[in-house]
Design a protein that fits this description.
This protein has helices spanning 20-28, 43-71, 76-88, 91-109, 114-124, and strands at residues 13-16, 34-37. By secondary structure, it is mainly alpha-helical. Helix 2 packs antiparallel against helix 3 (76-88) and helix 4 (91-109) packs antiparallel against helix 5. The mean pLDDT is 84.
Length: 125
């Protein structure tokens, strides 16, 4: 699961359902790499959609930040800042983004908001 342009059949793929293994074997004959997932038809598509939510959301946030910077006459500053943040990213980055956003959301939304409920659920896990 990654962007297809330029990679063609070398794009990592997932498949699920009763014919997934057969599909993987056929496409593997053409050089494709297909991960077969346990589960019904649609399980692989669910993962693809979840990944797309993240990728498209991140891209939208970058575009919005760059447009705002351009309007402020600071177009080059966020480009370097965003690039450096992405390069520094590691396993702890995900937790920092989730926990920090939920905590900040509590400050903005107040003590009875849905973000507080989400933060409490996350802490219990």
């Amino acid at each position: 699961m990654s962007p297809v342009p330029g990679r063609g059949l070398r794009t990592p793929m997932t498949a699920s359902g009763p014919a997934a293994a057969e599909l993987a074997a056929v496409l593997g004959g053409f050089g494709a790499s297909v991960e077969v997932l346990d589960g019904p038809v649609g399980a692989a598509a669910t993962r693809k959609l979840l990944r797309s939510v993240f990728c498209k959301g991140m891209a939208a946030a970058v575009v919005e930040a760059m447009e705002a910077a351009k309007a402020a006459g600071l177009e080059e500053w966020p480009r370097g800042n965003i690039r450096d943040e992405l390069i520094r990213g590691n396993a702890a980055t995900l937790d920092r983004l989730i926990d920090g956003s939920l905590k900040h959301g509590l400050k903005v939304q107040g003590p009875r908001g849905h973000l507080q409920q989400r933060l409490h659920r996350r802490r219990r896990v």
